[in-house]
């Protein structure tokens, strides 16, 4: 994003983010699908009335996971450059839950990932840093 822009520039629907980390037991797992809609300036978060849920979750946990997604989305969007006006309604459409490995922190990360996915969809991937050529001394081959 180079000049003053507004996020999202157009509706971005069906943005899926999966956070899965297996670094021991328990692991982390969250799978979400969200829509990013142009809205009034600021960040609005909603849960779709017909939220699709894959996997078993207790009612109290569901609300906790939804709040965690909202917090992750909020954090990632408030970290955008000052030249970007955030005017978005984020609608949580679906969640995938693992009975053992899902927890609020997993959904928080998934919310952040969803924003990153949406930014790539809206503006393209960030440029990769260029590698610097090594100096002549560093390029010398070792003797065989």
UniProtKB/TrEMBL annotation:
InterPro entries assigned to the protein according to its UniProt record, in alphabetical order:
Ribosomal_Su5_D2-typ_SF, Ribsml_uS5_D2-typ_fold_subgr, Transl_elong_EFG/EF2_IV
Sorted alphabetically, the keyword list is: GTP-binding, Nucleotide-binding
Query: Which Pfam families would you find in this protein's record?
Result: EFG_IV
Q: Which domain of life is it from?
A: Bacteria
Domain Translation elongation factor EFG/EF2 positions: 4-123
KW Nucleotidyltransferase (keyword) present: no
Q: What is this protein called?
A: Translation elongation factor EFG/EF2 domain-containing protein
- Which organism encodes this protein? Streptomyces macrolidinus
């Amino acid at each position: 994003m180079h000049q003053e822009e507004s996020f999202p520039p157009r509706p971005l629907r069906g943005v899926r983010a999966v956070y899965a980390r297996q670094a021991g037991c328990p692991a982390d797992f969250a799978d979400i699908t969200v829509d990013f809609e142009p809205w009034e300036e600021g960040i609005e978060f909603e849960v779709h009335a017909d939220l699709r849920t894959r996997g078993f979750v207790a009612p109290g946990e569901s609300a906790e996971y939804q709040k965690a997604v909202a917090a992750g989305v909020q954090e990632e969007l408030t970290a955008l450059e000052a030249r970007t006006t955030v005017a978005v309604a984020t609608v949580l459409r679906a969640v995938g839950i693992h009975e053992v490995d899902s927890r609020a922190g997993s959904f928080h990360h998934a919310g952040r990932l969803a924003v990153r996915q949406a930014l790539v969809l809206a503006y393209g991937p960030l440029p990769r840093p260029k590698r610097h050529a090594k100096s002549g001394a560093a390029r010398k081959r070792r003797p065989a």
